[in-house]
Amino acid sequence: MEREVNLDHLFIDRTLVQSQTETKTGKNSAKAMEKELVTCSLQEKEKTAIDRSQIFQIPQRKDLDTKVIVVLGKAGMGKSILIQKICQDWSNGEFSQFEFVFWFDCKQISLPEKQYSLKELLLEFFVKPQEGSKEIFEYMLQNPDKILLIFDGFKGLHDHENFSRCSASQPEKDLCSIKELLSGLIQKKMLNGCTLLFTARPKDKLYQYVSKVDKTIEIVGFSPQQRELYITKYFEESLYCDSALKLIKECEYLFSHCYSPVMCRFVCFLCETVLEMGENSLPSTLTEVFLKFFKQKIMFMQTDATTTQNQESLATLARVAWCLGEKHQSTMKSDLIPSKEVKEFALKYGFFLPFALPRRSDSEEEEFGSTFSDFVIQNFLCALHLLLAEELKDKNLTKYLSFLSKKKKPYNWLDLMPRFLAGLMFLQDDPSFCSLSNEDEKQSTKKQKTLLKYIRRLQINTLCPERLLELLCCVYETQNNYLLQHVALRLEPELSFLGIVLTPPDVHVLHSVLKRSRKEFSLDLRNSSIDMQGLQALVSLRNVTSFRASLSDTVRLWKSLEQTKDYELLKASTEKFVLDPFKAKTMKDIRDLSDLVEMQEKMMNCVQEASGCTSYEIPAIRNLRKLEFA
């Protein structure tokens, strides 16, 4: 069984939170800000690590209008746990500027048929005072600056492309959908002066509906040192404490995925299972991790009599996951689950979590909803459905891999699903897969051939950087040597990931594929949010002959190499670095350029110590011919 581990304090205190204050207003600026989010958030801005106590501090803001704060983070980064921690801190006396704090899970309150008045939402559904609710609500209307409203998971507002404007004549009393209520709060028709806190994924379209954001905060995940600390805390009372960390770090791909706290938890769970079974190796891909996770959950103490029933229930649950996922949903009313057996199966194994739907009065019959326990679970089940669905022909499977079509939008909401789908196609003869499905071997071979044929015909050099990265990640999940080599040999010599966020797993995959190629590559890694370890790994490849990266990231890497006395890599990386032409857009760019020049003197000392040479000039400085000020 999975051990309960209280990691909340570690999760928040050790996760880097970056902050930026926004003051842009108006339609055009909102559109521009949305464009920034598409290439992901804050990488061009100056980043500042902040403490939780600073979240609601907005400098130079003195007016009494509604304040809007946005917390960005990929799925699984810990946005919801941060919100829980804020609420806990408030209950312990912190954030005393707020007398009322209301926390709403968007996916649980935004079922399409539900309507609320503001008073019902706050004082009936969220918390119900035993007496005096009318007086309390009146006090809140008169003191909105003492109210914090938290809406966790903007993606949970279904169909937010059609976000409604609040048209209620008495918005505090009239019944509205949750989207209309939220619109009224944003438009300052309700509780003007309160503080609104949203959590969202970087690509959610929040900025189309919130024209002014006072502060943007980004949760960026664990550093390698924080991953080690998390794993150590997870196993600190276990017999496998030392061996678990060593085993996970040896599997570099899985360790890279541990930058995401939720992935780190899954990897730790599987590692614990593997060690308890006396094995000494972990799966090599994320698909295998979750295949074994499902097998461990379902097959534990399973009898032959229940095997078929469980396979059928899993297939039905996978269909439910897909039907909801197509609509960008993860929640449904419990009475809409296809059968009692499927509902019990999903709840028993922890794939669904139940919750009570809000009631308008005590006499109203209580209703329940169910939500997938984790976004990764739903992504995996969607991929499983596409593989098992009899109505889907083999040749149609490839359209669900998001790199294969220029016209159709990729399944961004189910961003892991294409990778799981590609991985499962090559794991259908794996014992773990066979225990979850009764699909015959001929079908699995046909699907593999379909994918091989499609990728062979794919014009890889025409793919945009984002689709190319998705292709590499999908192919990596197959662990098929032919496909990996095929893709590696067809990469363009000049690869630009300008403005494309490169997570640690992305960097691992890119490094692995480049290493297979005999070509020489030039990389553009500017504004990719690549971490220092990833930058070092790519720069150290012999067939990477030149690179561009953010100046601050590059100088940080060089300072690290200098401290560790890795002078050989330091010299090699300075010779590969390209700066010309350089465009300074902010004062930060000027400071970064100054840091680079200061690095010149340190480099002279390093080279002299390493080779005895008395003079050395960083080629990027020597060759800088054009400096442009935006």
Automatic annotation (TrEMBL):
<dbReference type="InterPro" id="IPR008095">
    <property type="entry name" value="MHC_II_transact"/>
</dbReference>
<keyword id="KW-0433">Leucine-rich repeat</keyword>
<feature type="domain" description="NACHT">
    <location>
        <begin position="67"/>
        <end position="202"/>
    </location>
</feature>
<keyword id="KW-0677">Repeat</keyword>
<dbReference type="Pfam" id="PF17776">
    <property type="entry name" value="NLRC4_HD2"/>
</dbReference>
<dbReference type="GO" id="GO:0045345">
    <property type="term" value="P:positive regulation of MHC class I biosynthetic process"/>
</dbReference>
<dbReference type="GO" id="GO:0005524">
    <property type="term" value="F:ATP binding"/>
</dbReference>
<protein>
    <submittedName>
        <fullName>MHC class II transactivator</fullName>
    </submittedName>
</protein>
<dbReference type="Pfam" id="PF05729">
    <property type="entry name" value="NACHT"/>
</dbReference>
<dbReference type="GO" id="GO:0045348">
    <property type="term" value="P:positive regulation of MHC class II biosynthetic process"/>
</dbReference>
<dbReference type="InterPro" id="IPR027417">
    <property type="entry name" value="P-loop_NTPase"/>
</dbReference>
<dbReference type="GO" id="GO:0045944">
    <property type="term" value="P:positive regulation of transcription by RNA polymerase II"/>
</dbReference>
<dbReference type="InterPro" id="IPR007111">
    <property type="entry name" value="NACHT_NTPase"/>
</dbReference>
<dbReference type="InterPro" id="IPR041267">
    <property type="entry name" value="NLRP_HD2"/>
</dbReference>
